[in-house]
Structures
1.
Amino acid sequence: MISPLRPQFLPGTSVPYPFCNQGGVTSLRTGTGVMSSVEKYSSGLRSDRCWHWKNATHCWCKDCQRSSSPSNVWWEIVVETAAHVVYNDTEASHTSLRLFYDTDKSLVVTLDTVTALFVNVERDTCALNCATCNKDLGDQLEKVKKTFFNHLSDVYIKYRKSRDENKLAIIVSHPHGCPKQVSIGHWLKKHLDNNKEYLKFTYTASTCPGSSGAIVYCVGYGSWWRYHLIHSGTKGREENYSGMSSVSI
C-alpha cells in the first residue's frame, strides 16, 4: 500500500515525489534491496551476549504472532532500500521480500513480516527489519552475510588506490521485478553534501524501473555494509544517481 503521508515533492525541488498522488492505492510495486545485517537471537540474547534492542524474547514473524508458543530462537534481517520504494512503517507492513531470486527457476523464498527501522527522505534511504524462525533460512543467510562482507572488504582493499582511475560502478538489481541482473558501467561524478558527511554518485551502469533501492558498488569506495550506496533514480538515458551515503572518501 502507498502511504498517504508521502511528500508532494522530492526534497529541495519541484519534482513530484514518486507515487505522491496515489496514497491508499494497493497496486503491486517492485523495487530492490540489499541485506545488510543478520542477527540470531535466543530468548532475546544475541550471539555477542547483547540483549534485543526492544527487549523481545520470542520471534515476531507472522506464524509466531498467531502461535500460542512462539519460538524463542529467531533471526532478524535488515535490508536496505530506497525511501521512495518503502516510505514508512505503513508501507513496510504491506511489504514482502523475495530472497535468492537469481533465475526464473529459483524457489520462492519470502520474508513477509517487515517493519521500517529507519527512513531518511533527504538521503533517499530506508532500512527494513524482518524476522524468521526458520533455522535453515537463518543459517543460510548468516553464511551469505559472512561471505559477502569478506569479499566486499577484499575488493575494497585491492582497488582503493585505483578507484579514481578505473571508476568502475556495479549494480545488482531486479528490474521490473524480474530475476537478478548485474549492470556494469562507470561512475561519472561524486557530490559531497554541504556538511561534507555524505557522498552521492552518478554513473552509467544501466537500470530500469524496479532497480530503485539496489546496491551501487563504486569499486574501491566503502568497506562495510553501512557505507552502501543505494540506487535512487535516473537523469535521462545516460546518467543514473545514488542516494547520499557516508562511504569512505
2.
Amino acid sequence: MTEDDPARPQPSPGRADGEWGRADRSGAPPEDWEAPRERWLSTGVRPAFGPRSVLLEVAARLLTPAILTFSVFLLVSGHDRPGGGFAGGLVASMAYVLRYIAGGRHELAAGMPMRPNGLLAVGLLIACGTAAAPLLLGDPVLEVYSYTAHLPVFGKVKFASYLLFESGVFLIVVGLVLSVVAALGARMEAEEEEARGRRRAGSAEEGAR
C-alpha cells in the first residue's frame, strides 16, 4: 500500500502523520476520533452539537431529497387526500432540521434557498394574495378556480387555485419551524463553542508544560 493509496487512512488537518487515533494523556480517545474522513455535506464546518457523525451526515445527504420530494407530493395531493400545505411544510422542515443537527447553522444556511424570515414573508404574500384575489372578480374570499387540461403523458390534469394558497401555507410552515429552530439553537451553539474554546486553551496550556 503506497502513501498515495486512497484506502490508506489520512490524518486529520492539523495532526501529524502517525498520530491518527492517538489518545491524549488522560487515556481518552481524541475528540474527533470517529469523525468521517469524507465530506458528505455542503459545508466542511464542524457542527455545534458535539463531534461530526458519519451516520448523521450520510443520513442528511441521502434522505433530504427523498423527504423534500415526499413533502411536495403531500402539498399537491392534499386537496383530495391527506396532506396539504401544512403537512407538507412540516415534512419539508424535518429535512432541514436533520441537516441542522448534522452540520449546524452553517449547513442549514447552505441548504436553504433563502432565510427563514424571507420564506415567511413570501408565504404570507402568496397565501394572502390568493385568498383576496377573488374579491377583484366579485367572488367571495378563498373562491377556488379550476382548469382541466389534457397533457400528452399525464392525461387529464386538473389545476386549481387552491394549490397557490397551499403553497403559501407550505412556505409559512417551513419558515416558522426553521425560525424556531434557529432561535432555540443559537444560544446552545454559542455555549458549545465557548466550551470548545476553553478545552482548546486547556489543551494548549497542558501541551506547553
3.
Amino acid sequence: MKKKTFVLDTNVLLHDPESILKFPKSYVVIPVTVLEELNRMKRLPDELGKHSRTVFRLFDSISKEGRGDLHKGLNLDNGASLRIQLHSKAGMLGDLTPSIRDNRILMSALLLQEQGEVVVFVSKDFAARIKAEAIGLEAEDYENLKFSYDGLYRGIRLIDVTKREVDEFFKDSILKVEANGWKPNEYCVMKSPENSSAIGKYDAADGSVKPLIKFSDLWGVRPRNVEQKCAVDLLCAT
C-alpha cells in the first residue's frame, strides 16, 4: 500500500507547531507558500508569532540532525519524511487564481496528486477543504487525524488482583506477575473486588511488582493522587 502524502495548510502549523511530527510512516509536505506566510507572521508579538517561530526552530533542529534535506525529504523518528514543496500546478484552475495564497497551496497539493502521490490536504479551514474537494483532492480536518488520547501509553496500568494478593504485597513488598507486555519501571495500580488497592512499580530484573520508594516529606511536597506519587517516586529513584 502506497504511503499517503499529507499536505499541511498554514493554519494547521499555527494551531499546532509540532503537527509535522504527528503523521507517522507517511510523507509530510509543506508548500513553500505556507513557509512564506509563517515568515510574515513570525515577528508578531502574539500566539501566532510564537507558533510561527516554533515551526522554524523545529525545522532548523531537524535539519541539523543530518537526516537528509528539506527539498528531497528529512527522515523523522516516526518513519515519516518531511519536505518543502517548491512547485505548484501552473496556470489557473477554474476560478482559482494563483495570485491568492490559499489557491497556490491547493495547487501544490494538486500537482503532487497528478504526479502519482496519494495526497491528503489537511486544513482547519472549512472553506479551504471544500475547495480542495471541488478540485478532486481528499481533504481532512487536522483534529480528525489526531490520535486519541485514550490510545496513548500513560505509564500506569490497572491490574485486577485478589484482596489476599494486596495484603501479601504490603507484607512481603513484592508481587510476582505474568509477563504481559510490561515495560521496565512501569507503574501499576492493583485493585481487588473488595476495593483493596496498592501502587507498585514493575521490576524487569525478576518479573515482579514492588512498592514505591517510601518518604515522609519531599521539600514540603506531598503527592495527592496516583500520578503524583509515581512522579515523586521517579524523582527519588537512584
4.
Amino acid sequence: MARSSSLSEAEAGISCFASSLPGFRGVLKHRYSDFIVHEVARDGTVVKLTSFDLPTECVDVKEEEKAAPAADADHSQALESFRALCGDADCDALRGLLERVAAGGDSDVSPVILSPDADKAHRSDVHNFFKKNFKFLVTDTVEHSDGVQRCIRVRLGSAGGGGRGGGGGGRGRKRKNMGGSDWRDDRPFDSRGSSNWSDNVGKFLRFHLYKENKDTQETLGVIGKMLGLQPRSFGFAGTKDKRAVTSQQVTVFKVQANRLAALNNRLFGIKVGNFCYVKEGLLLGQLMGNRFTITLRGVIAESEDVIKASADGLGKNGFINYYGLQRFGSGSVPTHLVGAALLRGEWKAAVNLILDPREGERDDINEVRKHYKEHGDIDKALRNFPRHLVAERAILQCLKKCPGNYLQALKGIPRTLRMMYVHSYQSYLWNHAASMRVQKYGISQVVEGDLVYNKENPSEESTSVDIPETDDSNTDSSEIDLGSEAQPEETIQSVKIVDSGDLLKGMYTFDDVVLPLPGSQAMFPGNEVAEIYHEMAKKDGISLTENAHGVKEFSITSMKGGYRRVFQRPIDFQWELMTYTDDSSSLAETDLDALSRTKPREANEPVTSEQSQDKLEKASDTSTPTNGSDSLENKPTGSPDTVPRKLAVKLAFTLPASCYATMAIRELLKTSTSVAYQKTLSC
C-alpha cells in the first residue's frame, strides 16, 4: 500500500516519555559537527584519532613482493600471450598498468577494467593466466558500468603479492548472493591477502577511522578503491551516522600501515591514524557502545530553569529505550512493512514494496522506479539505479536470471540487509509493547508478570539474541539503519517472570525490566503486555507461533529472539548552556581540531545564571527573522555588541551499543526526532 509520507513516531510505537518535565525548542544536526560520535571499544576506551604515526612493528615482506615489476620488456612474452588471449585493447591497458607500477608508488596505482566478457570459461582462463604470469597482480570479476555485463578487474595485490585466490589459503566462505554489489558480507578481511607476512606481526592492521558527513560504507569504499581492495576487506564493529563527525576502529587484512597512511593527503573529510597490527579482525557487534557529543542550536525556552530541569531530568531519569525511526527507514515505505510481507510469505508483494515508486525520493530515482513498474525493463533499471540501492539492484539481477522467481530474488539481497526487514518488524512490535507497558503500569516500579534479567541465578542457561541492535546510525543503502552493533547469536543473561515473592523481596527495579523481541526461545511477559504482541501480529496476518511458509529465515519461529531493556539512563552524562552568534561556527571540538591544536572558530562561552534570562529573551526575539530591512541576519556582521546572541545546549553522554541517541534527545526536548519535523526548524 502506497504511503504519502515517512513513518511517524506514533506509527512506530514511540508515544511515551519517561518524565512529565516540560521540554524546550532546539535544532538537532543543524551542522554535521553538531553530532560527534566516538566508538567505545570492548575494553572501555573511547576511540579517538590522536596520531598519524606509523607503528613501531616492522612488516618484513619477501623481496619479490617489495620489488615493483620490471619494465615492459621484461614481460614482453607474457604480454604477447595475453594479447592472443584478450586482444589489443586489453593488452594495452595491462601494459599501462605495469608501467605505472614500475614507476613506483603502488598506493597511487588505480586498477584497470578489461573489456566486457560474457564467457565464464574464458574469464576463468584469464584469471588463471594472471595467477601464473603476474603473481603480484590480483584479478576479480566485477559488474560493468551498464549494470548488466561482467568484466575482469586487474589491480596490484595487497602488500604487492598474491594472485587471485592465492595467499589467503581459501579462508572464508564463498561469497554468495551478493547480487554483484560491493555490499560487505560477514568476512572481516580480504582472503586474497599476501601469504608472505612476518610471523611476529599481527596479520590485521587496525586503525582509527575519522570521517565527516559520510557513512561508513561510503568511506570504506573510497579507501578500498584507492588501495585496490573490496569494501568487504574491512572489518568494523558497527556503522556510524552519516550526518555526523565520527571516530571508530577498523581492521584490514595484511595491509601495511604506510600504504594506508599515504592516503591521508588525498582523502577529503576522511582521516586514518592510530595504526597497530593485531591478531584478529573486527566483527559486527564487537564494541561496548558509543560516546556522543551533541549540540542543540537555536534553543528557546521559558527560562533557564526549564532547560536545567529537563537536562538534569534526562541524566537522572533516563529515557524509554525505543528503537529510533531510522530503524524503520526514512522513506515512505517503512522497512517493517516489507518485513511483514516476508513473514506472511508474500514474496511478490515484498519485491514490489522494495521496487515501487515512493514519495520523498530523488526525482531521478523515482523516474527509474516508475519506468520499471510500467515497462518491466530490467536492463534499463540496472543501468540507472544508483549503486547504493543495494536491495533493488540485487533483486533485479536475480529476476533477470530467473524471471518470476520472487523468493529467489529476495534471497539475492545480502543477508545482513534482507534480515533487517524482519528485524524491523520485531522492533515495531517491541516499541508498541514498551509503550503499553509504560502507559498501563508506569515507570516507578516493577509489577507482577514483568520480565526481568534473573539476578538470583545469573549462571542459568542463557538466552540467545539474534537481533542486531544499533546506535544512532543511518546508512545510505536503501535508507535503512544497518548499524548492526550486537553480535548475532550473542548470549545474554537469563530472564524470569516477576512473581509476588520477588516483589516482597524488593530486589528488582524498573531498570531491570525487559521486553522480548519475538522468537522461538523468547519468553513473553506474564501480564497483559504479552497480548499486544499477538494482537498486532494477528492484525498484520502474522502468527508468532506458527510458520506460514517453509522458508526458515523469513519466519519468526525459526529465529531465537532476544530481550531489550525498556529503560536506559545515559552514562557519564554532562551538559552545558552556551551562546553563539554565527550559525556556521563550530561549538564542539572534533578529533581533527584537537590534532591540529586549533579551537573552534568561536569559543564556547558558558552562560552564568545572571545572564541567562536576558539571553533567553534575546534568543526568542531573533529566532524568527522578520522581513524588515532593519532586521539582523544570523551572521556575525557588525560589532559583537550589535549581533544577537543565540543559545545552544551541548550534551555529552555514553550509551550501550543497543541504544539510540535520538531517543535521548526526544526525551529532553519532548518533540519529534523525525527528519521531516527537524527540517521545519531553523536556528
